[in-house]
Amino acid sequence: MTVEIAVISDVHSNLEALKRVLREVRSADMLVCCGDIVGYGPRPVECVDIVRERCDRCVMGNHDYGVVTGDVAYFNVAARIAVEWTRRQLDEDKRDFLAKLPKTERFEVEGVSIFLVHGSPRDPIWEYVFPHTPRRLLEKLVDKAGTDVLITGHTHVPMYDDVNGSYVLNPGSVGQPRDGDPRAAFGILEVSDGRVVSWDVHRVAYNVDRTAREIEERGLPEELGARLYRGV
Questions:
Q1: Are 32 and 5 in contact (CB under 8 A)?
Q2: Measured between alpha carbons, how far is 87 from 81 in angstroms, rounded to an integer?
Q3: Is 191 in contact with 185 (CB distance < 8 Å)?
Q4: With contact defined as beta carbons under 8 Å apart, do 149 and 171 qualify?
Q5: Residue ranges of the chain with pLDDT lower than 50?
Q6: Average pLDDT of the chain?
Q7: 174 CB burial (10 A radius; 0-12, 13-18, 19+)
Q8: Percent helix, strand and coil across the chain, each to the nearest 5
Q9: Pairing with 214, which of 16, 40, 56, 106 sits 20 to 30 Å away (CA)?
């Protein structure tokens, strides 16, 4: 039996992008999220509700962490403003949901073991794993994960690498892509009978104008809307 797993990450309170992606993945057997439901964008309440309802598994991202703890020491000015604004929008129930998100998830589908994390297995919240990350480091991270598949987020850049027979994957960002393509990104992982059948990253256009306008209307930094048009 082939199981289709839709993978999303870095929604960043971008409701328009999230709704567009979810229309594309509605036939998937499973939906997982690599964190950063909130931050940057104008619609954190709705995005938290949707991810909580729709995702089978979700881990905590650094912006989720910042909103829960109030610790903004590692954020730039625009990100800090957005985190502090987001904290004021979420009620206790939604903050509690974010606070209880695990930092990592290990699970198995059709005999394929999967490690889900926002950053990396050795630093789940903050470490970046890019396509250009040195091979020696990727090998260490794969060994630490100890699974057939390691799925990360955080970079907002799609990734696929075969590291000694284990796969390192990143679906890119739903709500704020940074690979030069402004369309929302998501991944589809197919597994069957103990093996990975395929991994594909898909892109879909969404109403950027509406999200950028809402960012401005809510008094968030203008640059957070402007960058959505550039995909950087």
A1: yes
A2: 10
A3: no
A4: no
A5: none
A6: 97
A7: buried
A8: 35, 25, 40
A9: 56
- The answer to whether 155 touches 91, Cβ cutoff 8 Å, is no
With a pLDDT cut of 70, the percent of the chain lying above it is 100
Tokens describing residue 48: 């938290």
pTM over 0.90: yes
Q: What is the DSSP string of 31-95?
A: EEE-S--SSSSS-HHHHHHHHHHH-SEE---HHHHHHHH---TTS-HHHHHHHHHHHHHS-HHHH
Tell me which residue of 165, 201, 164, 161 sits closest to 181, measured CA to CA: 201
Pairwise CA distance, residues 212 & 132, whole Å = 30
Retrieve residue 118's tokens: 């926002």
Alpha-carbon distance 128 to 197, whole Å? 26
C-alpha to C-alpha distances, 20 to 11, 171, 203, nearest whole angstrom: 11, 15, 10
Other beta carbons less than 10 A from residue 114's beta carbon: 24
Express each pLDDT in 173-212 by its tens digit. 999 999 999 999 999 999 999 999 999 999 999 999 999 9
Backbone angles phi, psi at 107, to 5 degrees: -155, 170
195-to-1, 32, 185 alpha-carbon distances in Å: 11, 19, 24
